[in-house]
Automatic annotation (TrEMBL):
CDD domains: TyrRS_core. It is found in: Cytoplasm. Keywords: Aminoacyl-tRNA synthetase, ATP-binding, Cytoplasm, Ligase, Nucleotide-binding, Protein biosynthesis, RNA-binding. GO terms for molecular function: ATP binding; RNA binding; tyrosine-tRNA ligase activity. This is Tyrosine--tRNA ligase. One of its GO terms (cellular component) is cytosol. It comes from the Bacteria. A motif ('KMSKS' region) lies at residues 241-245.
Length: 410
């Protein structure tokens, strides 16, 4: 916490604690002195602050990396502020160019509607639905019309737009930039005007768009919002940001056993970062746990607690307990009680083709790599021969620690 700001602006214990909550795990909170004033005013007047998070429904499912900003929303919600979950059904028609080196293809209205239907249901596993305002930016974006859009575009210059890193880099590299892409940050900024936002949250890659909201609010005579950016969560490998394309993610719709086991697979170092960004435990509780581990307690105890907390959030406490028992059972070489049943034909069938057809490996080449690494078992025995062919029969096939299938081959 920036102590000088707190010292220069005498505040109550309540505001001090709210600022500490706001700053937990954040990348940036700008401008911090304005946020302190907003918190103090809210405490004095009893008027909750309006806190906005916009998400474009570009995919139907979200992973726990996406919940980092949702967790921050929940923390601020628990302080009594009004959180607004904004579904960017209009901006999705444009396509967010953030971090892109090429034009993002826009989604169809049908795709957007389908994705939006599942987005809020998933977000509600983190936010309190009873205290969440749900909005769609088509409410105010579509009525703007051509005249309103031209007037909005007059509020920002091309030179300022080209200061944005992805536009600047694409222009220098000679890559095309479509004119409609300039509309995206303008429309996202206009959302803050329409909602009279006091604070907008986003990932670090959204900073330009968040600052656009401040600029446009000033243009329209409003008090500008503060912005809060959260870091991008490292995935299971502890190196790359969590991403489905990198297969280092935990989907919040994954089954409890898989979710629990995946959390346990992260490194002891990454565990503490996940605690800060994903856990609902207080910082004091996390520091106490760290001290216990530093004092000799097995770090696995802390990781188990984190795995159970995350699994319980997206499933239930009972499911988390069952996942813990399932993991213990598997670690002793046991086979889970319920595994997928797969029927295949073509016996005798090569082990690589069998793994691919049973959806235990994405490709035959990946199956061979898994075999080389000793990660494939058939009926409990490790497979070392990539040329192995299985005759007709039923087999329990295991890949890694978590993937199983009972394969009946004919």
């Amino acid at each position: 916490m920036n102590q000088s700001l707190v010292t220069n602006n005498p505040v109550s214990d309540g505001v001090r604690q709210a600022l500490e909550t706001s700053l937990r795990g954040v990348e940036e909170l700008l401008p911090q002195d304005e946020w302190i004033k907003k918190l103090a005013r809210s405490e004095t007047t009893g008027q909750p602050l309006r806190i906005k998070l916009g998400l474009d429904p570009t995919a139907p499912d979200i992973h726990i990396g996406h919940t980092v900003v949702l967790n921050k929303m929940r923390q601020l919600q628990d302080l009594g502020h009004q959180v607004i979950f904004l579904i960017g059904d209009f901006t999705s028609l444009i396509g967010d160019p953030s971090g892109r080196n090429s034009t993002r293809p826009p989604l169809t209205p049908e795709q957007i509607k389908l994705n939006a239907e599942t987005y809020y249901r998933q977000a509600s596993l983190v936010l309190d639905p009873a205290r969440t305002e749900i909005r769609y930016n088509s409410e105010w974006s579509e009525p703007l019309g051509a005249t309103g859009m031209i007037q909005l575009a007059s509020r920002f210059t091309v030179a300022r737009m080209m200061e944005r890193n992805d536009f600047h880099d694409r222009f220098k590299a000679g890559n095309p930039i479509a004119v409609h892409e300039f509309l995206y940050p303008l429309m996202q900024g206009y959302d803050s005007v329409a909602l009279k936002s006091d604070l907008e949250l986003g990932g670090t890659d959204q900073k330009f768009n968040l600052l656009m909201g401040r600029h446009l609010q000033q243009e329209y005579g409003q008090e500008p919002q503060c912005i809060l950016t959260m870091p991008l969560l490292e995935g299971l490998d502890g190196i790359e940001k969590m991403s489905k394309s990198k297969n280092n993610y935990i989907g919040i719709s994954e089954d409890a056993n898989t979710m629990y086991a995946k959390v346990l697979s992260i490194s002891d170092t990454l565990m503490w970062r996940w605690y800060t960004l994903l856990s609902f435990q207080s910082l004091a509780q996390i520091e106490a746990l760290k001290s216990e581990v530093a004092g000799g307690r097995n770090p696995k105890d802390a990781k188990v607690a984190l795995a159970k907390e995350i699994t319980a959030r997206f499933h239930s406490a009972a499911a988390a307990d069952a996942a813990e028992q399932d993991f213990i059972h598997r670690s002793k070489g046991g086979v889970p009680d319920e595994i997928p049943e797969v029927a295949l034909s073509g016996a005798p069938l090569g082990i690589g083709a069998l793994l691919k057809q049973a959806n235990l490996a994405p490709s035959t080449s990946e199956a061979n790599r898994l075999i080389e690494g000793g990660g494939v078992r058939v009926d409990g025995g490790v497979v070392s021969d990539k040329g192995l062919k299985l005759n007709a029969g039923t087999y329990v096939v295991q890949v890694g620690k978590r993937k199983f299938a009972r394969v009946t081959l004919a």
